[in-house]
């Protein structure tokens, strides 16, 4: 019987810490206040697990799950949720297939969280316009020193 290499049994995965996740959701809410909007904001770790969540009073209740799913999607795939249409292009099968997947969000407001090039999670914001959601998500990245790449900017 072949022996199993130890590296293949235990894998270390970088994840966002709870303090950074809390700072990120607070920064997103602070930015939403500046914009005069009400949001729900979530941070997921790189495994897609919920690490932090805040709901502003008066934010749409239906946006709670959307914010969480945006964070989950961005953390799982490592690119902004608003980039999904670029990824699938004109492939109708992919559009139909991905849209049928639970928890997958294919519109803006979810951004990956990277520190020194390492994916550690995702942030998702829902409740305002797509542009405002993304601006709040970028504020969350900025407060913890996460990378804001060109792909993380609405464009």
Keywords:
4-stranded antiparallel β-sheet, globular, 6 helices, Beta-Lactamase, 155 residues, alpha+beta
Descriptive report:
The protein is an alpha+beta fold and 155 residues long. The chain is built from six helices and four strands; from the N terminus they run ααββαααββα. Strand 1 and strand 2 form a beta hairpin. Helix 2 (18-35) packs across helix 6. The longest helix is centred in the N-terminal third of the chain and has 18 residues, at 18-35. The termini are far apart.
Give the topology:
Layout lengths: L5 H4 L8 H18 L4 E6 L4 E6 L7 H15 L6 H5 L3 H8 L10 E6 L2 E9 L3 H14 L12
Antiparallel strand pairs: 1-2, 1-4, 3-4
Helix pairs in contact: 2-6
Mean residue pLDDT? 91
Beta-strand percentage range: 15-25%
CATH architecture identity: 2-Layer Sandwich
Number of helices: 6
* Outline: globular
Classified by CATH, the class is Alpha Beta
Radius of gyration computed on alpha carbons: 16 Å
The total number of structural domains is 1
Main beta-sheet annotation: 4 strands, antiparallel
Q: Which residues form runs of ≥5 with pLDDT under 50?
A: none
Number of strands: 4
Annotated CATH topology: Beta-Lactamase
Order of helices and strands: HHEEHHHEEH
Which percent range fits the helix content? 40-55%
CATH superfamily: Haem-degrading domain
């Amino acid at each position: 019987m072949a022996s199993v290499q130890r590296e293949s049994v235990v894998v270390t995965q970088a994840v966002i810490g709870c303090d950074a996740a809390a700072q990120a959701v607070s920064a997103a809410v602070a930015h939403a206040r500046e914009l005069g909007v009400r949001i729900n904001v979530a941070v997921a770790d790189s495994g897609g697990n919920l690490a932090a969540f805040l709901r502003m009073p008066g934010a749409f209740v239906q946006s709670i799950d959307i914010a969480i799913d945006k964070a989950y999607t961005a953390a799982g795939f490592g690119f902004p949720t608003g980039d999904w249409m670029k990824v699938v292009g004109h492939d109708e099968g992919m559009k139909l297939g991905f849209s049928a997947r639970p928890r997958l969000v294919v519109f803006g407001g979810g951004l990956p969280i990277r520190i020194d090039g390492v994916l550690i999670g995702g942030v998702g914001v829902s409740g305002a316009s797509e542009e405002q959601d993304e601006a709040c998500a970028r504020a969350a990245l900025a407060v913890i020193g996460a990378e804001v790449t060109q792909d993380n900017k609405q464009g």
